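User: Let's play a game. I give you a shape written as tokens, and you guess the letters that built it. Ready? Here's round one.
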């Protein structure tokens, strides 16, 4: 959801040089300080799940187009997708492209879609990786993953970026394992917010599914409370920002990727996602732009 952004917080961040505009709304260079807060939160998120002995994965900001198609992303969120196109013509074709460039015509149609797309959420590439290994072990599996993500949602609201980093814990297992995982993470996340002295609430939410059919999908998601969010006032006091989400996919990805539990039933999955930049922005919003003035416990928690 786009919110009315308090212009002061956005402009303070830019004036302080924490975020540096790069010529497209929602695309920023980040100062060393901003990124060290993000990195501290990334480590803190990982530590919060240390007892789970999860498999740690670090992903590139792109994934295979085939996996993206199979996940059904274009059916649900075509407006957010970022595909990677390349030039693969010959010299004559190249001359045409350069002519268009020189005469300021649109040259992008001279490219073709490649076999990679930008990763829309950290967990998307995880399912086919796990599926390729065969049945889950008894007790299922947990993955701890961080990735740069892309969503085409340009905005002046600094909490709505086009490229951002998401840290996720992904649970694959039985329905009961997945349900208790998500419930436990809601409590862990509230504990983390308390530790960071951030005013957080848990709300039932929905994804921005596209179009008329999407409205019905969103309503059903709310009705079944499949998506919860930890929200914190950041850009606006009236409309708090989703800084984390807790998603129960039920057997959707298990069925899509034929992921099976040890007793050969279709696996259920859930993921918990930390929006690292949004959490960093929440810290700057509530504790000020000077990190040296933050509560010592907060600085300790993120190693600053
Ligand atoms: P929103 O409702 O604000 O669009 P979302 O529900 O689409 O967010 P998720 O798909 O649940 O977000 O992604 C997990 C987390 O990633 C979010 O809770 C948020 O913290 C972060 N995130 C999502 N979109 C953005 C964005 N455009 N810029 C920065 N962080 C984001
Ligand atoms: Zn996810």
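Assistant: Ready! My guess for every position:
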């Amino acid at each position: 959801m786009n919110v009315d952004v308090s212009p002061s917080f956005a402009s303070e961040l830019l004036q302080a040089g924490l975020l540096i505009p790069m010529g497209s709304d929602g695309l920023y260079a980040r100062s060393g300080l901003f990124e060290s807060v993000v990195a501290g939160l990334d480590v803190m998120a990982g530590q919060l799940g240390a007892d789970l002995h999860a498999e740690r994965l670090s992903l590139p900001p792109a994934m295979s187009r085939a996996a993206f198609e199979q996940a059904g992303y274009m059916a649900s969120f075509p407006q957010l997708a970022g595909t990677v196109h390349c030039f693969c013509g010959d010299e004559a074709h190249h001359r045409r492209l350069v002519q268009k460039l020189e005469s300021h015509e649109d040259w992008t149609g001279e490219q073709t879609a490649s076999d990679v797309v930008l990763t829309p959420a950290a967990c998307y590439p995880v399912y086919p990786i796990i599926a390729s290994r065969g049945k889950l072990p008894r007790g299922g599996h947990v993955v701890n993953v961080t990735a740069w993500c892309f969503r085409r949602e340009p905005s002046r609201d600094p909490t709505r970026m086009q490229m951002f980093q998401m840290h996720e814990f992904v649970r694959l297992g039985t329905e009961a394992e997945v349900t208790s995982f998500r419930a436990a993470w809601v409590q862990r996340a509230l504990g983390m917010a308390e530790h960071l002295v951030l005013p957080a609430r848990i709300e039932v939410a929905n994804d921005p599914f596209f179009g008329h059919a999407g409205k019905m999908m969103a309503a059903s998601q709310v009705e079944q409370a499949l998506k919860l969010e930890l929200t914190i006032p950041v850009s606006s006091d009236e409309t708090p920002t989703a800084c984390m989400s807790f998603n129960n996919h039920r057997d959707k990805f298990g069925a899509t990727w034929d992921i099976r539990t040890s007793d050969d039933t279709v696996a259920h999955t859930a993921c918990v996602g930390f929006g690292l930049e949004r959490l960093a922005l929440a810290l700057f919003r509530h504790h000020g732009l000077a990190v040296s003035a933050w509560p010592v416990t907060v600085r300790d928690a993120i190693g600053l």
